[in-house]
Amino acid sequence: MGEEIVSVVVGGQRFTAFLRAQVRASMKEAARSFRLELAAELGATATAWTFRAGAQVSIYANDDLLLVGYVDRYRPRIDATDARVAVEGRSKAADIVDSSAEHETGSFEAKTPLEIANELAAPFGITFAADGDLEPVDYQITPGESVFRAVEKLARQQGYTLMGEADGNVRLPKAGSKRHAGGIIEGHNLKSGEADHNWSNRHSKYVVRGQRATGSGPDSLEVEAIARDAGVGRYRPVIIVEQDDTTPARARKTARNRRDKAAGRALTATVTVQGFRDERGSIWQPGWLVWVESDFLQIRQEMLIETVDFVQDGVGGSETKLGLVDPRSYGGKKNKGNKSGEAWEQSDDEATDE
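Structure tokens predicted for Prophage tail gpP-like protein (354 residues):
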């Protein structure tokens, strides 16, 4: 593939001569972030004005947009032989992360988290989108609560995260719905990597208990569901007591989600590859699946990309560092063809009421 050129458009001008440029995108972060390091060749005044705090920037890799946002910090540094500047910032969604939500009543009835999010984010010029259907809820904003905090809480209850997109808007993604071409293979394009096979948070069974807000009898006062993880192989139960209104269906869903997320988090990895793109030339994207194969890391399966760090400097050239997780940590399904040591073993049973 051709050379990757990172460019930054600010104040109507396009800049490409950076000592180091880094852009980060994550499944778990509503705002993307960036850091630029540049020599102050334009002169102190010109550089400070161009990249001043609050300036709007657009960052590209060749013709692909990576980030639209604003400069948060301008940090000049000088010594006897060198003068350089560090510039840091985030995508447009940073405003909904930092700022309190304002709403005429602060109260929402029978609205989906997506509807609530778009109503609260409208004054900021931010738009939310979702990859699936969300259930209507009632919600009361806590005074001083940020838009992000309110929406993240509601999204998390329905199994979604808030992911910043390149255009500065926010998506509630369905993890693993897309796949990158090719894979990351030891001896081929895996430049460096490390893995963490960590079972410390896995349990043999997950018991969820709670009560209905109304009603009487066992179905309302003694709600319980159990999900088992046969891969643990020894007695390690955990009991989760729900504080909110709980139905048997919600308890079963919670038990399954807790089991699957713990199993997924038992296998994580960080890998570095040359360039910013997969084998077909697509920019690496958080939330996509990629095949990973490394005997040394004990991974041979599809992994979900949780974080992406694009880095370009004079040492490594253009590199991408990918933070990977087992897809089950975001609700992905077990794939019997995948083999990563014993990390994929898990009961196929659904959660049951007991």
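DSSP finds six helices and 22 strands in the chain.
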